[in-house]
Amino acid sequence: MPLQGESGRPIPVFRFLDSMGLPFGDLSVEVLSWIGVLMSLLLATGDRCFVMWAPLPFALWLTYLSIVNLGARVVIGYGWEWETLEVGFLMIFLCPMLPSRSGFPPWLPPPNIVIWLLRWGTFRLLIGAGMSKLGERSSSCWRDFTCTDTHYYTQPMPNPFAWLFHNLPTSVHRTEVMLTFVEQLILPFAVLAPLRCIRISACLAELFFQLCIVGTGNYAWINWIGALPCIALLDDGFLSYFFRTSMVESATKASAEAEGHLPRGQRRVTIPRVLCWMYRTARFPVHMLLLGFILCKSAAPLKELFSPAPWLAYYDDYFFVNAQGVFGFINKHRVNLVLHYTHDPLPELPKGARRSQKSCADTNGYIAQNERERYACADLEELCGKNKDVKKLCPWTCGICNTSRNWDERALRSMRWKPLEFKNLPGAVTRRPQITSPYHYRLDWETWIQTTASMERYIEVWEQERRARRGAAALDIPLPGHIRALVRQILAGDTDAMSLMGTSVLELLQPANNKTNAAWLPPTAIRAEFYSYKFTTPTQKWRTGAWWTREKMSQPHVFERAPMSPKSASEDTWAGIARSPWQRHWVLFLSVFGAYASLCGIVDSVCSLSISTLTAELAGVLYYMACFALALAVDYEHMELVQQISKQMKASVETLPWYMVIAVTSLRPGFNGVVQLSILALVKAADCGFFHLLKFPREGFFRNVLVETCKCWWDVGRSLVLPTVLGIFAYSAGRQLEQLQLPGTG
User: Fold this and answer.
1) Is the pLDDT of residue 572 over 80?
2) CB 193 within 8 A of CB 201
3) Burial 683-695 (b: 16+ CB within 10 A, else e)
4) Could you read off the pLDDT of 212-257 as tens digits, one per residue?
5) Per mean pLDDT, which range of 138-152, 240-254, 624-638 is the poorest?
6) DSSP 439
7) SS in 3 state form for 386-412?
8) What is the C-alpha to C-alpha distance for residues 320 and 677, in angstroms, rounded to an integer?
9) Residue 629's closest CA among 605, 648, 614, 657?
10) Do 57 and 85 meet the contact criterion of CB atoms below 8 Å apart?
11) What is the β-pairing status of strands 418-420 and 334-342?
12) Is pLDDT of 288 > 80?
């Protein structure tokens, strides 16, 4: 993969990793993601010196900017990614450059200019959402006050409370729309009001509104990142009601020191106070430049938001200031994709039926470009019916490769089809909607964009067909390109692609030979259909227990698995796609979490001037990094790196960690010591399990982890609560792993 973002966008962290010898690819993306997890843990729950230190949010901003600028459609195409980078950039200037262990560093108050910029960002976000509902592209239901009649079941990923709100009286829905206009067109101006009571009331009203949205739908973290700048509307007097007395007193004292309101006897000139005064003097012009920069950058977004058709937009490669005209369009119908899979052999094609060409594949690379961007086939799906050249160069994306339209539906119905569920999209009508916010299922969201948000035109045609035929009608609706790619990977045996679905990988794979279990095969075929979904009424829910009602809209699309070679069929083996062992994810997380705990311990030991503890914590960081590198090296099959790490850790695996455990637990008693000990024991056990897995892959990774964990805890003589809970899970999963040798686990 070339080392560049989309259209040459800046990806500074990837360039730095490439200069350090880690080339750009899947491995560097995963390493950078785990580094982001570690920094986020330090910033959110770590020592106060991490929280009150500007370089950490700056590093997080650069990391996330590098990932977003890779240009993946499921990352850069969503507005909350831009809002996250915009707010994250301001947070850099909110924290002081000088680290402090105090939650309220004296003489370093948060800058008022940055707080006002956060309020300005809140104003633009709210007014943008409101103006988008009045623009030319907005739905007419906003002017009729009827949008929430259909919003709750057509939104991307409803939750159980959406069903409840959908079934409220019509008068309540009208009130909801009116309150939405008040919140997004009147309340934003109260955000900028100089009066404290108006500003705090606006903040509370906005937080309540965002909480209502979160409670009735799964919108990733857009509402969370939208509510975060609202905290800047509050002051210490209001926030003091939510903190204990000691913290309030510390904050009051720090504020008095910052403003110089100390008694004369305490006004002493000290070196730290002089340094802080110099720092505050130097940062003021920086913040003034930041204010001018953000105001200049705000001109284009404001022009967009007050245009006849405001919408989402960003204006530079760093997402400093963006236009957030969101959710101006509300769907009236829900067109939902439903997948099924089978392990039964497919029937023979009827006479006259033709399969798609073997050479049917999209043209590799970019096939079109303009002044700013280049486009591959996956980006030009909307032009398939308008441009003959696109249809010729991108047959797979345009649906020409589909082999399903000539299948006999009676024969298909005679097969045993099982539902292939998405993680968060509706599927079976009795399946309860999920609550997942702020977690983001990108596959589900992109599928909603390509179906419900883009296929309302098929609803009108479908209803006309039904009226003409006086019964059911089935349209020929093309599948989105990313769904065809997903189905192709699942049929090829890609367990990573299978893990994106709500159906378990263990259900999608079937033994090739029930007697030997020598190989496990993916489904023989996957069927895709489109349905029109609606929420049930309370009466229907009471009678049937179903959350949804649905009607079939389309003909089935059936995709076959590639046939096995004669040799593979005779040996019961499957030459599919080998992917990573799924058990290594929690090993990586334990290693990252252990490094986080050790870094916090390093800060404590430096502040307490404890050399022995500092040595143990430094050794812990190195050990966790080695475990992390070993897990990735095994997964990405860098066997030379595995051998190097194995040689270096062969002695330390048996000796170093337990000297470290004794030092940590003796010098850091209490809860922290127990947590640290738990992490060390589990990581050591997982590490030993990896070594054992390399030698004896069939004996079960998790069972080895269980045995090693119990041995470690027996030697140390500590509580077995945490390792036992994880050990039980490890043992059960290990038993499944022994019975099911997934591709890539051996």
Assistant:
1) no
2) no
3) bbbbbbbbbbbee
4) 999 999 998 999 999 999 999 998 889 888 888 888 888 787 777 7
5) 624-638
6) S
7) CCHHHHHHCCCCCCCCCCCCCCCHHHH
8) 43
9) 648
10) no
11) antiparallel
12) yes
Q: How many residues does the chain have?
A: 746
Helix (H, G, I), strand (E, B) or coil at 255: helix
From CA 87, how far away is CA 118, in angstroms rounded? 7
**Hey, how many other C-beta atoms are within 10 angstroms of the C-beta on 678?**
23
Interval 255-280: pLDDT, tens: 777 665 555 555 555 666 677 777 77
pLDDT at res. 119: 94
Question: Backbone phi, then psi, for 141, in 5-degree steps?
Answer: -65, -20
Task: Compute the distance between CA of residue 746 and CA of residue 693 in angstroms, rounded to an integer.
Answer: 8
DSSP type of residue 230: G
CA triple 413-419-424, angle to 5 deg: 150
Q: In whole angstroms, give the CA distance from residue 557 to residue 45.
A: 49
CA gap 333, 453 in Å, rounded: 9
Q: Rank 1-10, 193-202, 616-625 by mean pLDDT and report only the highest.
A: 193-202
Q: Which amino acid, 54?
A: A
Supply the pLDDT for residue 338.
95
Burial degree of 227 (CB within 10 A; 0-12, 13-18, 19+): buried
Give the pLDDT score at 299.
93
Residue in the block written with tokens 């560093």: 105
The amino acid at 423: K
Quick one: what percent of the chain has pLDDT higher than 70?
Answer: 66
Work out the number of other CB atoms within 10 angstroms of the CB of residue 303: 11
Which pLDDT score, from 0 to 100, does residue 44 have? 83
**Does the pLDDT at position 701 exceed 80?**
no
Amino acid at 224: W
Three-class secondary structure of residue 529 per DSSP? strand
Per-residue pLDDT tens for 3-31?
Answer: 444 457 888 999 998 888 888 888 889 89
| CB < 8 Å & 24+ apart, contacts of 464-471 | none
* Helix (H) / strand (E) containing 418: strand 418-420
**223 with 214: CB under 8 angstroms?**
yes
The confidence score (pLDDT) of residue 366 equals 67
Alpha carbon distance 698, 220 (integer Å): 39
Task: Find, among 84, 369, 125, the residue nearest to 230 by Cα.
Answer: 125
Sign of the alpha-carbon dihedral angle for 231, 233, 239, 242:
negative
Domain locations in the chain as residue ranges: 1-77, 103-323, 334-348+379-571, 584-739
Cα 584 from Cα 580, distance rounded (Å): 8
- Cβ distance 377 to 393 under 8 Å? yes
Predicted pLDDT of residue 33: 92
The 3-state DSSP class for residue 534 equals strand
User: Residues near 527 by Cβ (< 8 Å), separated by ≥ 6?
Assistant: 339, 340, 341, 342, 404, 412, 417, 556, 557, 558, 559
Task: Report d(CA 82, CA 74) in Å as an integer.
Answer: 13
Distance, in Å, from the CA atom of 488 to the CA atom of 573, rounded to the nearest integer, reads 19
**Nearest-angstrom CA–CA distance, 242 and 248:** 9
Query: What are the residue ranges of helices labelled H in 433-512?
Result: 442-450, 456-469, 481-491, 495-498, 505-508
What does the alpha-carbon distance between residue 539 and residue 546 come to, in Å, rounded to a whole number?
10
Long-range contacts of 664-669 (CB under 8 A, 24+ apart): 664/601, 664/613, 664/616, 664/617, 664/620, 665/716, 665/718, 667/610, 667/612, 667/613, 667/616, 668/601, 668/604, 668/613
Nearest to 147 by CA among 165, 127, 124: 165
Q: What percent of the chain has pLDDT over 90?
A: 31
Q: Which residues pair with 552 in a beta bridge?
A: 531
Q: What is the pLDDT of residue 611?
A: 66
- Structure token pair of residue 462: 């479908």
